[in-house]
Amino acid sequence: MIVVLRSRLTIRAVTSGGPGGQNVNKVATKVELRFRIDEADWIPPQVLQRLLAEHRGNVTVEGEFLLTSSVHRTRRANEEAAVERLAEWLAEAEIPPKSRKKTKPTRSSKTRRLDGKRKESAKKSDRRQKDW
Asked: Which domain holds residue 33?
């Protein structure tokens, strides 16, 4: 299990978008959690590689991993939610993908495939104009 080091994360509060009345423009409750990918030595390389492959939309042009949370109404709750989500994503990335076992198609699946091809062929040949 990877321990998320808050000292290595940059957490910033920003104003949330969308409807919300007068309060939405005054209170910064949305949280942006960032960390530099090249400085993330607290994450094993294989785990970091799988995390980036799974969540490539969260990588900025500057090489930072960006995660936002605006689910809750308070900044502290959103901060906790963002850190928790990062921990969940890291836990998922820790599990290596299962290797594929090669299998041969069964006889019945081959028969079904060829029958389908024959039916399609017959359907299309019936559409052709006959030369009477």
From this structure: 6-94
